[in-house]
Design a protein that fits this description.
Number of helices: 10
Largest sheet: none
Distance between the termini: 104 Å
CATH topology of the largest domain: Four Helix Bundle (Hemerythrin (Met), subunit A)
CATH architecture of the largest domain: Up-down Bundle
CATH class of the largest domain: Mainly Alpha
Strand content: under 5%
Shape: globular
Number of domains: 2
Structural class: mainly alpha
Length: 236
């Protein structure tokens, strides 16, 4: 009985010591920790959370497409929207997020499918084809006309000295999209491969960045070469 009483006394003494210790802790150390203290800091964390969520969502979308859980017609606009949202979110964090690799590494964000898609900058249906559209003779003729027009529009833009990424990237995207609607052009056709490389290069740049005169000259040369090859493929 005395041992139990002794244990109770020891417990009471320990509790009293803890209470006394807590009372001596500095008040500021007992306050709730906040990520932000100003409206500007709160906006920063909100923007980073948006970027994190966009990358995760895109990763899920890519996996769903690979597993055939979503149709190409559903996948393409959803992917385009997420890529556009990513660019907007990243531009708002250009000073805090120098690279997507660093952001994903800092926050242990393992989303390889999303990373690959963001590096390329266009949906898989644009990169590889497979839009699920009809390939009737009438549709094929329309897609040929669209491809020719896209070639001419982009080449004319370069000749008019347009050099900003946000001016050329959409046109290049449209061109590759038109080409992918033609089953006669395989995914590994030289023109497609080269245009995908240009898309990836522009996608790694800021919208306001400009291609150098050397890059513009090379891009125009590549376009003219692929344009001529495209015409030859129609005659074969």
């Amino acid at each position: 009985m005395s041992s139990i009483t002794g244990l109770q006394g020891s417990a009471s003494a320990a509790i009293a010591a803890i209470q006394q210790s807590n009372a001596q802790v500095q008040p500021e150390l007992m306050q709730e920790v906040k990520l932000y203290t100003t409206a500007k800091e709160r906006e920063l964390y909100d923007n980073m959370a948006d970027l994190f969520a966009i990358i995760q969502t895109l990763n899920y979308l890519e996996k769903a497409y690979v597993r055939d859980s979503i149709s190409p017609s559903e996948y393409t606009p959803a992917c385009e929207k997420l890529i556009a949202q990513f660019r907007t979110a990243k531009s708002m964090l250009k000073d805090q997020v120098p690279s997507i690799e660093k952001f994903m590494g800092d926050y242990k964000l393992s989303c390889p499918a999303a990373y690959q898609r963001l590096q390329i900058g266009v949906p898989a249906t644009v990169e590889h084809g497979g839009t699920g559209e009809s390939t009737s003779a009438r549709n094929a003729a329309v897609h040929v006309a669209e491809t020719v027009q896209s070639f001419i529009t982009l080449m004319d833009s370069i000749k008019l000295q347009m050099s900003a990424v946000d001016e050329l990237h959409p046109q290049l995207n449209d061109l590759l999209g038109s080409m992918n609607k033609l089953p006669s052009l395989s995914a590994d056709w030289e023109g497609k491969v080269n245009l995908r490389e240009w898309l990836a290069k522009m996608n790694a740049m800021q919208a306001s960045d400009e291609l150098t005169p050397e890059q513009l000259r090379q891009l125009l040369f590549d376009l003219e070469k692929h344009h001529n090859a495209f015409y030859r493929s129609l005659a074969s």
